[in-house]
Design a protein that fits this description.
Layout (H helix, E strand, L loop, with lengths): L6 E5 L4 H12 L3 E6 L2 H11 L2 E4 L5 H15 L4 E4 L14 H29 L2 E6 L12 H21 L4 E8 L2 E2 L2 H4 L12 E2 H13 L8 E4 L6
Parallel strand pairs: 1-2, 1-4, 2-3, 4-5, 5-6, 6-9, 7-8
Helix pairs in contact: 1-7, 3-4, 4-5
Length: 234
């Protein structure tokens, strides 16, 4: 597709990968509508980037429906939905509480499911569209302390494959991106701050570039999955 024709809903769009993606797509001519849970962060991104947006918690069905209604009102249509909102909890299996496991599942799986469902309903009517799910290399291989997070990303990968099988006949491209470690506020939120000056690790800009590249392919084809690694992280 031509990025200048893109009308994008981007969840988790106020910081990190989401912010950099909104920035790049806007610069390339797309109409971008973001959401996030923090009103302050959403308004800051809207002001800085010249985009549209609203507050929404993707784990709540009412918020997801309102997100699509507002985006349609503001943009007059939608042809790209990027499922980027996500949280992480990392702990040993025996120390992982049911509450924490459920919280991760509510956002990373149920939230993505509800966003995908609303996108699919609209795209099937239009007989075209693009869904990009931002998963992780944690959707490909488990690791110690990753029970909740890996389970959620493996589930997202399964949903991606299911949606792809269902929606291809409607000319809907369903794609998944699997970033390895990216320097973003995600790690600050889980109490594992990164060295933000480390330029050997992936930045949000690399994932934004990947998203733009996948969307830019002519609609006759699409890349199903893209895994992004840092070349030589220190």
């Amino acid at each position: 597709m031509n990025i200048k024709d893109a009308k994008v809903i981007l969840t988790g769009g106020s910081t990190g990968i989401g912010y950099e993606t909104a920035k790049l797509l806007k610069e390339q001519g797309a109409d971008v509508f973001i959401c996030a849970r923090s009103e302050q962060d959403v308004q800051k991104a809207i002001s800085e980037l010249g985009i549209k947006g609203t507050t929404a918690d993707v784990s709540k069905e009412t918020d997801v429906k309102n997100l699509f209604e507002k985006a349609l009102q503001e943009m007059g249509g939608i042809n790209v939905v990027i499922n980027n909102a996500g949280i992480g909890m990392f702990n040993l299996l025996v120390d992982t509480s049911v509450e924490d496991f459920t919280k991760v599942w509510e956002v990373n799986v149920k939230g993505a499911f509800m966003v995908g469902k609303e996108a699919a309903k609209y795209f099937q009517k239009e007989n075209t569209g693009n869904i990009i799910n931002i998963a992780s290399t944690a959707s490909q291989k488990g690791f110690a302390n990753g029970t909740a997070y890996c389970a959620s990303k493996f589930a997202l990968a399964g949903m991606t494959e299911s949606w792809r099988a269902e929606l291809r006949k409607h000319n809907v491209r369903v794609m998944q991106i699997n970033p390895s470690e990216v320097v973003t506020p995600f790690f600050d939120k889980i109490g594992a701050p990164q060295d933000k000056s480390n330029q050997t690790k992936l930045q949000g800009t690399e994932i934004a570039h990947t998203i733009s590249s996948l969307l830019s392919m002519n609609n006759v084809g699409f890349i199903t999955d893209a895994t992004v690694w840092a070349t030589n992280p220190k």
